Please model this.
Amino acid sequence: MADRQSLEDALRRIWGYDHFRYPQGEVIDCLLAGRDCLVVLPTGGGKSICFQLPALLGEGLTLVVSPLVALMEDQVQSLRRQNLPAACLHSQLSRPEKKQVLRQLGQQTLKLLYLSPETLLSEPVWNLLRQPQIKLQGLMLDEAHCLVQWGDSFRPAYRRLGALRQGLGRDKGQIPLAAFTATADRQQQDLIIAGLNLRSPECFQVSPHRPQLQLKVKTVLSEYCRRQQLRRFLLKHLQETGLVYVRTRTMAINLAQWLQERGFDSEAYHGGLGAHQRRQLEQKWLTGKISSVVCTNAFGLGIDKPDTRWVLHYQAPLMLMDYLQEVGRAGRDLQPAECLTLISEPTGWLDSGDRQLRQYFLAQASQCLQRAEALSKQIPFQGNLRELKPHFPDLEIALAWLHRRGRLEWLDPFNYHIAPGDNQTNPLGELKSQYHLMTQYLTSSRCRWQTILAAFGDNSLGARQPCGTCDNCLAKRQ
Model:
């Protein structure tokens, strides 16, 4: 294994940095030693170097599982500018481009390959990776919170990643597996470790505290009041760039149209847009052609605009993990940024929007779980996903829910076994607990950063002292 001096020499040669920031060096040592790890580092903490450097120094191919095309392309372009052997594989590539990447993969000329869980588990890619001549060095899961956030809904392939090593075979089944994220509390870390079948992982965690973010919450009495608060906020920040977060596609479209009618240069971004439309809108915002985007949580990952001066949550996220991810889009240049969340008044009599939103998402989760339980009585206790999927369209999501509940084991990424027994988790109870934690944060009079850091198990000095910049701290000072 390379010593620290040679690692720092490589760091200086490739990236121009003289020294590692904690825990970069420790994570690299862990991966080079072939051990699993979970890394929770705030945005801008240098997560990518943790897996890129050992991949470039070692032998064989490192797979980087990433959720979004923009995130993959950004990192691959950065590596290619330095003539480093990296590529990404996704559905938006042309057929010749895909063939070229697969040819590079077969010829073992790549050190890093970025791809989504779905692409990784597609038949041509999976079959090629299992070939004995393909030497794998490691498997890295970037933005690992997506396993918790999306693995039971529209990205069920995340739930099968824990069986990758079994499916790759004896020689490749020993490769290290590492998960990287900016946000995960203790419960979510446990879910990631269990979902990926990490083997006695070393855990590295740095405080998510971002002192430049000024956190504020404002209560509104009606939908009309909510929109007027948004309008006043945007007028206050006319010369600055920011994001308006909502929770549904319909709200993103309607709210962007409402703002356009009032003269604001805002556009809607959501998962229903085509890939080309999303790239165009991202570039318009990044280059300052529009000052704001009304977006769902589909916007943000892999999009880095350091001078983002504000984030407004028109509708609050349901979980603190999502909230911390979304406010983290602002203030990356370490300059002050305002983060305002609008919430319904507590009784819900005058404005029931927030309560209805929570009930809607809980009802969706409950329906998914019910369908999964019903389907488990119709399918074999042991079977193959590829063979059964044509007969059961909702099979993959149903199996993901059964896996989350502890009723299903993936023997490899395609073959499952449903286990009888009562030792099951309660996903709905976990969701309600997370929703309650978010509600407590929004309604508490305690320092907002103290509340967040306590929820994420941060015992640093910053977690024990009021931030002095959130609305609750300012109110007490006045």
